[in-house]
């Protein structure tokens, strides 16, 4: 995989996510099906922060889990929908051009004995994040249906 292919995969991931998020209105941001789970806005914030973690690891700019407890506490704080979407857009706007510049050798580099992921290729982080995002995209689709909204088809143009 080269940088252009990596950027293309990430761009598609973002488009699929955008197709779900665009159906949420600001007043839906605090919706959650039950009290114990994240609100719609917190789900989007979680996607933004996790995407940043995965992609910063791939880009060699960090992947610090030493503050994971702090992260979990921060996830419980309320956030407005548009702020969460801004965070998500910022993450993708920074990541796509950076991946586009990566070489096959950089994307094929092996990371050994990572405390969370074990041994993997840098390019695997794109797949891992794509799967993680799909999981939350599905959750947000359920939120929309519970709000009486039929979500846009994920793969729509």
Structural description of this entry:
- This protein has 157 residues and is mainly alpha-helical.
- It has a single domain (3-146), classed as Four Helix Bundle (Hemerythrin (Met), subunit A).
- Helix content is 59%, strand content 6%.
- It is built from six helices and two strands.
- The chain has helices spanning 3-21, 40-58, 68-75, 81-100, 104-107, 124-146; strands at 110-114, 118-121.
- The chain has a two-stranded antiparallel ribbon.
- A hairpin with a 3-residue loop joins strand 1 (110-114) and strand 2 (118-121).
- The longest helix is centred in the last third of the chain and has 23 residues, at 124-146.
- The chain is globular, with a radius of gyration of 16 Å.
- It starts with a helix and ends in an 11-residue tail after the last helix.
- The model has no long low-confidence stretch (mean pLDDT 92).
Write a brief structural summary.
The protein has 157 residues and is mainly α. The chain has six helices and two strands.
Question: Helix and strand layout, with pairings?
Answer:
Elements: H1 3-21, H2 40-58, H3 68-75, H4 81-100, H5 104-107, E1 110-114, E2 118-121, H6 124-146
Antiparallel strand pairs: 1-2
Helix pairs in contact: 1-4, 1-6, 2-4, 2-6
Keywords:
Four Helix Bundle (Hemerythrin (Met), subunit A), two-stranded antiparallel sheet, 157 residues, mainly alpha, 2 strands
Query: How many strands in all?
Result: 2
Q: Distance N terminus to C terminus?
A: 24 Å
The structural domain count equals 1
> What is the oligomeric state here?
single chain
Strand composition percent:
5-15%
Helical run tally: 6
- Relative helix content: 55-70%
Order of helices and strands: HHHHHEEH
- Computed structural class: mainly alpha
Dominant shape: globular
